[in-house]
Write a structure and sequence with these properties.
Seven copies of one chain form a homoheptamer.
Chain A: E1 2-4, E2 8-13, H1 16-21, E3 34-42, E4 46-48, E5 51-53, E6 62-66, E7 71-75, E8 78-84, E9 88-92
Chain lengths: 93, 93, 93, 93, 93, 93, 93
């Protein structure tokens, strides 16, 4: 298993076809386009000003993140992204 | 539903025609022009210096924000912006 | 009414003719030239290092601010500026 | 009267002739050359890390400041500078 | 023995052949590609906002780190990297 | 007398001949070369994270400082430098 | 004697021949190559977020530091470097 460090989150990106299926369509503009994914693993959080701030996202959450966020890894044949939680904009509930 | 993370806010931008109707007209200068919108969802706030600072804006608020702020998403056929609360200048009351 | 967020202040700029009348004349140098205005609305302040710092300026104050500070808005036919309180140099008493 | 905000100080610069009289002569090098002035008004100080730090300078102090510091204003026919206290290097006692 | 200072970690990088063997395959994209290694020594941690934050990684952990992170050293014939813990993305468990 | 503000220090630089006499010879490399001087006056210190940190140097100390540090002033016919204490590397004891 | 200020450390660099003798060989890559040295004197530490953080290194420690770190001085005929402790990667024990 992969355990992200600090405020990092392991995310499995969802392919564009699925994205359309879930109702999210990325608009055709010059702005940064976020991408959808599923949270696979979450770090314990990071210290901010002397306080350990626990992550808001949890395993299984469907999240919206900056398209160019994170670092790609391939693990047991699947593609993942490791990113900081601050790269995640929102959760779909 | 979309739940913004941290100090992020989900805003539905109001088209320019509506903007005129509500009394706001953007002046013709070289300065940055703010835009009007409606708050749809609000994060729980962010930690600043060890204190969780709750957002000042709430769902339903009509807000003025930086024109180039935030990230565009299309959700269930509608266009939204996810931005940090610090990109919001003021509330119309 | 417009309610500025955080440490923002809504200022009605005073035209140059008035500026002369109140005794302020901007010198002809290459330095940044401040501008005079009247405070119309004030945010509740901002958190600095865990402390909510209330604004020093209050509604009605005549203030001196950086000429290029803030964001222009037109509201009910009048021009205003929304700026951070840190863009205000001084109050005329 | 002009009341500087935060850690700002209102200074009346002293002309070069006076500077010579008080014993300060600026050397002819490529380094930044400070300038002398008199403190006319002082803000209440600024919050640093949760503590309101009162200014060290007081009205009447003769101070040495960075030549290019501050913002020029003309008030009731006289030239002043509004600068942050951190632009002031030293007091002449 | 080498004792890293502060929040630094001594890592023995694992060659690419091993990387494949453990199931990690780096994808062929333009994104930054992380690298795998084994933790050999760990500093005592660093002070963040007045709190000594102990490292999350421990000796023997198999870690994923930024490819260009750290400083190379050769010690008793072996190649190591000294990097800050923040350059480590995740632990394999 | 000149009283430096905050964490500033007034230093009388020692000419290169004296420098040689005291045993310090600056090497001929491309690195920044420090300079020697004598502390003439010291500010009360600066607030760092809510704590007033008193200066380590005191009047009379012989110090080593960055060659390009500080601001030159001429006072009663003598050349001095006003610099921040952080520009001082070491004291000769 | 030279007493470094704050979090500075006085280091006597060890020539490359000695480096080889102690088992450290710097690899031939484009990465930054650290250098070995001996700690001669240590400052009292620096305030970080209101806490005086004492240095981890002590006099006599053999340390590994960034090759381009610090300021060169020649004292009583010997070459030294004054650097911040954060430029030191590790101690050899």
């Amino acid at each position: 298993m992969i355990k992200p460090l600090g405020d990092r989150v392991l995310v499995e990106p969802i392919a564009k076809e699925e994205t359309t299926a879930s109702g999210i369509v990325l608009p055709d503009t010059a702005k940064e386009k976020p991408q959808e994914g599923k949270v696979i693993a979450v770090g314990k959080g990071a210290y901010k000003d002397g306080v350990l701030v626990a992550p808001e996202v949890k395993v299984g959450d469907r999240v919206l993140f900056s398209k160019y966020a994170g670092t790609e890894i391939k693990y047991e044949g699947k593609d993942y992204l490791i990113m900081r939680e601050s790269d995640i904009h929102a959760i779909f509930e």
